[in-house]
């Protein structure tokens, strides 16, 4: 090579190196500026364990982020939803998906215990393949992951089924083919990074397997046990159960040859009661699956059906009719009890459960559904707490028969307990009706209506306890007891506490029951004026598509409606990408929007458009479409999610943007802002408005 050729070669290499450096810098800058976040990196595979085929999903969650479990209760953040897309005719699910280690903490915004993964998420689902020609198992995850912001994300898996998966062959592991998420393509990690993550996850799979099935959170189970125990104590004080205590204990003490034998028989009797109800909890868990009713808890029909059931139970408790099991069941149990011995004692306990069903049945039914909606072994824990409260008096009074003399005599007070339970059942029923209304966004049972119903129920209960209302099975009386008076005063105070809720009071004592403040005819209550900044006249004159949102701010939920109004009054637009189940969105609204320096600006200087990315209502067929990336836009939430990603290159909530009437950003330094302090939010807000021309 001569000098000229060598010189040209050096120049070529120099130019090439510069081009390479420029390209690397360009892609690095692009990646660093991309705001599409994927805090959870997924891998999946299929394993064969003996005669079982297991789908295994592992997610590596970035530091400080957490992803919500399937078992986060209704009314809180969005729970993980798992959909099996090609299940019909190809494979059957064996039980419910099992989860690895999770953590539970109380969420004071939504008023529920939320369950979530930290660091890693591990999920297993057993399947039975029924189509020998099945090529892939297609699964889709919809989940929410949060830190200072929240992301509603979607992950699709297409897991290849090896032809070698036969019952008589050695277990094989098939790696999954991963599809892109809805937001993939806007910020894609390098292949090397994905491989590194996958290797890291595979090392932790064995550890995670040991944690399955994961126990239900301790706090949640203790709460269920405590509530069930109190419910069992309430059932004990009903006319069907209370009179049985002295009769049964006297039977054991008189029929036994010694006091020690009487005590032993009574203890066996108590444990038999516990065994019957715990077995009932086991049956419910076995029939429906450990987590089936959890999946049903957000189902509209489930909530409507249970609303009707609770109303029937309440009507029975109030004295309209009795719910009883067939008499033949009790007669057969009595016949077996006459045989004596351990078997006889067991059937005595069964006879008690059958005879007392008209009082205990509604309570047990409510407990089972409430406990089962938490998933796992909650139904068993619930029945253990209930039956323990029911059985303890029989055992204790057998040990100390002298205590029987201190028991109050049976009388009208027992029916009073039953009626009080009826009122409580009726109040609880409307929680289930409210769930259905919230899911469908029908606005039939808004916050004011719900609170008004509870005021009526507890007001009527107060009048009943004060003796102003009598019901069919009440005994005539000329006075009320001191205990009944105190209980009446307590319900009267509670009723008075509810009344300000009609005018916007937060009612923190019952925050988990009524719909949220935004789901109301007026966010500041019936006939109220919020903070004095909104009048009845302004409510009547609101433009089409607008409603009153948090703190009485006028808000649009459709972009086109809000844009049209902004053009009409010539004001800048503030886009609020939010979610019904977004915790930090509510925190910003409660803590920042309510600030006296911020609230007047939101009410007077901008047109607020709040777009809910988790709105599950389906779009009209003509408005549904498929994106260039192949994602189907079916729901209202899908539409706003796609708008947020395509326009602002991010998928986090809350997200705030101030734009002019042409959709251009008005903030130059920070075009968008998220979960920040009041001072930073106020400065950003003022800057954007000042740039509006």
UniProtKB/TrEMBL annotation:
GO cellular component entries: membrane
Gene3D superfamilies: Glutaredoxin
Protein name as it appears in the record: Thiol:disulfide interchange protein DsbD
Gene Ontology biological process terms from the UniProt entry: cell redox homeostasis; cytochrome complex assembly
GO molecular function, one term: protein-disulfide reductase activity
InterPro entries named among the record's database cross-references: Cyt_c_assmbl_TM_dom, DsbDN, Thioredoxin-like_sf
Location relative to the cell: Membrane
Transmembrane residue ranges: 221-245, 266-288, 300-321, 342-364, 376-400, 450-471, 483-503
rRNA-binding in keyword set: no
Membrane topology value: Multi-pass membrane protein
